[in-house]
Amino acid sequence: MQQYVRARSGTGLLSKRLGLLAGATSLAALAWASPALAQDQSSLQNSTTSQPNAAQPAVPATANTTSAQEAGQPQDTVTAPDTSQGNSVTGEDIIVTGLRGSLQRNLDLKRSSSGVVDVISAEDIGKFPDSNVAASLQRLPGVSIQRSGSRGEPTGITVRGFGNDFNTTLYDGRRISTATGNRQIDFSTVGVDFIGQLSVLKTPDVSLASSSIGATVNIGFPNPFDHPGFRLAASGSGSIQDRSGKVVPTAGLLISSTNADETLGVLADVIYTRRDTDTNRVYVSGTPGGFFAPCQLTGSTASTCNPRDPGTGVPASDARTITGFFPQQYGAEQQRVEDERVDARISLQYHPTDALMVTLDNNFSRQEITSNNYAFGVWFNQGDLRNVTLDENGVAVDFTQAGTPTDFTAALNKQLLQTNQTGLNVKYDVNDNLTLEADGAYAKSWLNPGRIIGSQNGDIGYGTRLGNNLRFTIDGDSSDAFPSISNFGPAGNSAAWADRSVIGSHVAVNQTQHNTDELIQFRGNATWKQDDLTLKAGGQYYQDTFNFRNESTFTNNFWQAYAGYGAPSGGSAGIAPLPDSLYRGSISLNKFIPGFDGSLPPSVFVFRPSDYQNFLSSQGNPQAQNVPGFNYANVNGFTGSFDEQVDPGSVLRVRERTWSLYLAANFRTELGGLPFTLNAGVRNEYTSLIATGQGRLPTALVTSTADRTLLSIPTYTEVQPVRNDSSYSYLLPSLDAKLELTDNLIVRFDASRTLTRPTLSLLNPVLNVGNGQRIGALNASGGNPNLKPHLADNFDIGAEWYYKRNSYLSVGLFLKNVSNFVVAGVTRQPINGLIDPTTGQLASFAVSQQVNGPDATVRGIEVAWQQVFGDTGFGFQANGTLVDTNRPYDPTNISQSGFAVTGLANSANFVGFYDKNGFQFRTALNWRDEYLLQFGQNQNTGSFGAEPTFVDQSFQIDLTSSYDINKNFSVFAEALNINNNQQSTHGRYGNQLLDVFDYGRRYSAGVRYRF
Question: Does the record carry Transmembrane as a key word (predicted)?
Fold first, then answer.
């Protein structure tokens, strides 16, 4: 391999500077990721060279420790010689590229770092190991993924038991704006084709960030001077999901070039990605807890049953005194999802001298997810249940409910998420020792900009006098069974389940979330390097402005304009039958979830919610004429169009400003004659917050004449602006120590304090009581602008044995003491003195609100093993993580203050591969045990606080392969989830199914070109 040398003054200092970096590599030296240089000669796969190479990449890729001269050097594509056994770096050294070359680079970066770091590098320009960032990250020890149930796509990560919001994700060392309402990105929005490197910092670098209790993930994108000269990479592929049956494209193009004297460079890339997925889902919207009366239980001999709260004059058989849990809503649906994404980047670099590097870049992404959903649903009220059988945990495993209505729903859901970030970075080498850097960036993200309707829903069905005496039965555990229902159909006639002649209109719900997130950030720092000492000092400033607004037909109550199911059901409102032209077929529910026990009704209808709403609108203006079927008793102001209206209680604006100062020192010396590296730093962060919202309270509750399960809020108090100011400051120290016991055995100790700020959407200063309440399920939500960050004191100790080339074994222990956990509690309370018209008593709302709560300790062990079998091409990676906490979930605790650490799960990964002679094959096996995802369910209206959501254990197998046809062209193929792993969740107990998603397998094939 030819070594690249710049013919400019000062180049003789390069080897000295690289030596300094090798002795003082810090965590920040990993914060900037760099892509691998494309190989011009495929014959280099197993070639040899007499050129000696450094034991780490020739140019450490980092945004805030490299000098301007080093940033202008090309990225080293060869792996280091085998020095792990004390071998000399003279003579011929084998160069390995492709997957094995990538693994060796990852290993070198991990070994040379002073903290706990894992790295995934591109195998070549435009060739990353996986088709999704999160999918790649899950191959690392201690890292698990969170999937979107409807798409099966990895959307977030959990590191050492801490979920996505506990992990900071950076682009080239910069924070990213995201309009989702969370602080962290959805990884499915990141195009992976042209990423150069992913770095996962499990211990913090104070010069980069300390705002992550889990880990800091840095995504490194390419720049033109990473690969001087002209470079081109292109890829194209098609993918198909086994149920959707449609091939959809993915394509990418990258062009990079520098001028003849290599002072100016430009790089541009664009990626188009499409994924179509048909997912079958069976769901229970919530499993709230409450109290049953003895007359409701199987075997009761009571002549009447009127469940009431205990009190004077209440018969013992009617007194609600028996603790139990029941399903709030049950149904099944098919979701047909189209995920379309465009990612683009342009980078300009100006490098007139070795002392100056200027980089201007822009990153753009646009993801549009469109989902057509077709479903049925039935609603249950605890007080209406009869013949109830409770298991030993109080779960209602069998019951009947008289008069149960049946709904068939169709929904068109759209989510458009668009982000644009522009950044400018300047590095200047004052002299051989001192480098100054300034970095600034502006980013903005939009969720559903313009007049997009986020969710357009149509709901039809039958009820009232056609309601059935439905029976509900739980048949097994949520991991292999869903509940069964029987006695369904109009008035219990199962043969007439889909009889169009009795099906009428119910509700029409439109709702859209409109968010923006605007982020301004600046960083300035100075780095001093001399001999075995590196000093860094600097500061950062962030201003994050988040705007949140929800519009819906709930706000103006238009959603129930034609509720009531119509005349066949005996309703005074609603239109039935509906025109036959509305229906576009049906979906069979037979063998709906393969491998799961349970029984469902025969089918669900396919129809467009827009057609349904247009039909209702065509009935005319109810304000100008009498329109049969219109719900005059409960809906005012409706003129025929299902227009959305802004919910004042959803309007939120948060401006967060953070000022940070940091100082770090890294030096290399000897301890007892052994090489010893110490990296110590401290970071101080001061944050000020302004949260503003709009508050109002309901003044009345009324029943719906069109639907016996509904309550409406006809009037509210006047809207009042609400503002809250708060601030906090924390000192965050960090210490990394590394001792090299032998040439191939390293031990580490790390201690630090980190924080994670609460999700921005939780900081609303108002209580929001939405319209569209359900009988027996009144709810409201309140934010808390005074929430403080989670704080964690972290300790790591580990050992790494690099026993041969491209092979190592490591063991690490970690301990995290976390305080200020944000607890999503639910309390029952009255609001504004409202009376529940169904009971005549003070209305009791389930109010969810977040507070800073208890402390917890998380501890665990990580084991990782990488083995390459000489020059055979075979090898494997294996890792496992065991985690534990002193605050596990206790299902028997029904208090409002129940708490447990979320996200903790044992996990294991295995990747076996073959990589030789241009052919590559890889099998990846990923396992994660059951874990507590969150407190809260889709319907969370019970008496025992926020009910939990657990994710059942999962095991997935993926296959990838590629073949280099020549030095420019390669073909590849991928098969994901070949064992058809399904995602299921449950509530407090294992038989309380919440969701099961069957998203099937996906196959892809394509071609890559590089020059």
Answer: yes
| Residue 127 confidence (pLDDT) | 64
Provide the 8-state DSSP code for 152. -
Token reading at 949: 């959501």
pLDDT tens digits for range 767-785: 878 777 777 778 787 778 8
Q: From CA 786, how far away is CA 764, in angstroms rounded? A: 10
What does the block give as tokens for 164?
Answer: 């996505």
Each residue's pLDDT tens digit, 68-83: 777 777 764 433 333 3
Alpha-carbon gap, residue 977 to 229, rounded angstroms: 40
For 877, the 3-state DSSP assignment is strand
Distances (CA, A) of 634 to 87, 674, 876: 84, 81, 65
What SS3 class is residue 43?
helix
Residue 187, helix vs strand vs coil: helix
Beta-strand runs (E) in 73-215: 93-94, 117-121, 143-147, 154-159, 168-171, 174-175, 197-201
The answer to whether 947 and 287 have CB atoms below 8 angstroms apart is yes
DSSP 651-712: -EEEEEEEEEEEEEEEEEEEETTEEEEEEEEEEEEEEEEEEEEEE--B---EE-SS-TTEEE
Residues 6+ apart with CB under 8 A from 671: 739
Mean pLDDT (the chain, rounded)? 85
Give the pLDDT score at 709.
72
Give the SS3 label for residue 13: helix
Name the strands in the sheet holding 117-121, side by side, starting at the edge strand that comes first in the sequence.
117-121, 197-201, 216-220, 168-171, 174-175
- The secondary structure of 301-356 as a DSSP string is --S----B-S-TT--TTTB--EEEE--SEEEEEEEEEEEEEEEEEEEEEEEEETTE
The pairing of strands 720-742 and 790-804 is unpaired
What is the Cα–Cα distance from 700 to 711, expressed in whole angstroms? 10
Q: Which residues in the chain land under pLDDT 50?
A: 1-63, 76-95
Which pLDDT score, from 0 to 100, does residue 580 have? 95
Rounded CA-CA distance 480/998 in Å is: 12
Q: Looking at residue 96, what is its pLDDT?
A: 54
Q: Which of 858, 787, 852 is nearest to 818 (CA)?
A: 858
pLDDT at position 110: 84
Distance CA(757)–CA(658), nearest Å, equals 11
Backbone angles phi, psi at 911, to 5 degrees: -125, 115
Both tokens assigned to 811: 């063991």
Beta-bridge partners for 251: 236, 272
Q: Residues 654, 702: contact at Cβ < 8 Å?
A: no
d(CA 315, CA 454): 49
Helix (H) or strand (E) segment spanning residue 134 = helix 133-137
Per the CB < 8 A criterion, the answer to whether 65 and 527 are in contact is yes
Return the DSSP state at 297: B
What per-residue confidence (pLDDT) applies to 7?
A: 34
* Cβ atoms of residues 280 and 592 within 8 Å: yes
Q: Is 196 helix (H, G, I), strand (E, B) or coil?
A: coil
Residue 381 in tokens: 């009220």
925, 928, 930: which is closest to 978 by C-alpha? 925
Q: Pick from 282, 285, 156: which is nearest to 987 by CA?
A: 285
For residue 254, the one-letter residue type is L
Whether the CA torsion 845, 851, 854, 855 is positive or negative: it is positive
pLDDT given for residue 33 in this prediction: 30
Of 719, 659, 729, which is closest to residue 692 (Cα–Cα)? 719
CA 804 to chain centre: 37
Q: Which two tokens stand for residue 215?
A: 């880990």
Q: Is 316 exposed, middle or buried (0-12, 13-18, 19+ CB in 10 A)?
A: exposed
Distance CA 458, CA 464 (A): 19
Residues 291 and 383: beta-carbon distance below 8 Å = no
Model pLDDT, residue 677: 94
Phi, psi of 712 (to 5 degrees): -120, 155
Specify whether the CB–CB gap between 162 and 907 falls below 8 A: no
